[in-house]
Aspartyl/asparaginy/proline hydroxylase domain-containing protein (Seriola lalandi dorsalis), 161 residues
Amino acid sequence: MYVSHLNHILLEGRCLFQGQAVFPLYSAGVCVAGNCRSCPCTYRTLLSLRTFISSNSLGSAGFWLLGPGATLGSSYGPTNTRLRCHLGLKTPPLCELVVGGEPQCWSEGHCLLVDDSFLHTVSHKGPPDTGPRVILSVDLWHPNVAAAERQALDFMFSPDL
């Protein structure tokens, strides 16, 4: 269901899509099995990343869509032990991420690393015909978090299965 809906948004319903949609592969450290089966190459790539946070509730990964005219209000991420990697898949003009007062822009085929523990906002100010902004977002361990600290955080924030 998710995949056909995602394809409809990307291929057919560009100007009808508003707001935000998420197609999660991992949510709070738990694999969304049906979605991962729908995206086997992406799933295998996630598992190959040494720093992907896949075993505690601080980690998530998935495809995020943001429709034209949408703005996500200011927020802080829950921790500074992770960095969010945003891979730009479809990045229309006038899409912006502001982190800690510094504007950032996505670029198709490139990664943008974000420390979302800083105040951040997201907006897509493009016209409806530009379609949604689409990124693959993956939570990675911050490089300053040592292996022993990662193990302790995995234990403390183990997802409720």
Observations:
- The domain at 17-147 is CATH 2.60.120.330 (Jelly Rolls).
- The helical segments are 2-12, 33-38, 40-48, 147-156.
